[in-house]
Amino acid sequence: MSFSELFDSEFKQRNKGHFSAIVRVALADGVVYPEEKSFLDKLASRLEITESEYEEILEDPLKYPINPPYSYVQRLERLYDLTRMVHVDHHLEDKQEVLLKKISIALGFTPSNVNYIIAKALSLVDKKVDGDTFIYEMQHMNK
What is the superkingdom listed in this entry's lineage (predicted)? Predict the structure, then answer.
């Protein structure tokens, strides 16, 4: 196996782990609501999850280990992507904050701070900031 194949394989496994973590969050209440299903469909496409992998993960999300990002910046990058997808599509309407909170906790953000983090993330995405500005503002939001 070449180095690039190894990198691609590891990248794919991380994406599957991240997607399975999101599926676990969606299934936490025992039901995947249509809004959550729509969100999962878009996320699967973005993470390059095939249809067969998607079905396999939905069937048994515990099969893949949760791979939360190691660094705070990586968590912020994931949060930026997720917040943008939710905000741009507007398909989750009133439930978007609830779903973002669940996902943010799964990403490793502290439950006691998650309301503040999501409010700030939605505010920044609403202002259409780029990824670098988002990360900077999130890192310095308490200063």
Answer: Bacteria
Which residue did the predictor score with more confidence, 89 or 16? Answer: 16
Q: Which residue has the tokens 């799964």?
A: 106
Query: Residue 108 and residue 37: Cα distance in Å, rounded?
Result: 22
d(CA 61, CA 140): 35
- Mean pLDDT for the stretch of residues 67-80: 85
- How far is the C-alpha of 140 from the C-alpha of 142, rounded, in Å? 6
Other CB atoms within 10 A of residue 56 CB:
16
pLDDT of residue 57 exceeding 90, the answer is yes
Task: Kindly tell me the sign of the dihedral angle through the C-alpha atoms of 100, 109, 30, 85.
Answer: positive
